[in-house]
Write a structure and sequence with these properties.
A five-stranded mixed β-sheet has the order 1-2-3-5-4, with helices on one face. By secondary structure, it is an alpha+beta fold.
């Protein structure tokens, strides 16, 4: 299993544990019938970190927050995900320094719901 895949699993577990408002609805991908609110993992990418003597990749992962209530609720959930992940690390499964939130935003979704985004960056040793 790649470092990126392990990191995604760890992020799902961390958000599920730290944001009880999702009531366990934190997924890699949700179904259309998934009740609100919930979080999914969105786009991710990695780049080599050539400044290291060991194999390290800079990883960026997007966490998407979905709700149908209002922007204020979406903002609160987005902030809760931010707080759960910014500065967090778990070296029991993966060698990594703390994650850093590089972006957070809330917007209207064309389907009538509200969409929050939290983007985290970290370095993962392969």
């Amino acid at each position: 299993m790649s470092g990126g895949e392990i990191l995604r699993q760890m992020i799902i577990a961390r958000v599920d544990d730290q944001v009880p408002a999702f009531e366990g609805r934190v997924y890699d991908q949700a179904l259309d019938s998934t009740p609100y609110p919930y979080a999914t993992l969105g786009a991710s990418y990695g780049t080599p970190d050539l400044s290291q003597d060991i194999r390290v990749r800079a990883r960026t992962v997007q966490i998407d927050i979905w709700t149908d209530s209002d922007k204020g609720t979406c903002e609160a959930l987005t902030d809760a995900v931010w707080e759960a992940l910014d500065g967090w690390h778990d070296t029991t499964r993966l060698k990594m320094p703390p994650l850093h939130v590089s972006l957070a935003r809330v917007m209207d979704d064309p389907h009538g719901s509200f969409h929050g985004i939290v983007q985290v960056e970290g370095r993962v040793e392969d």
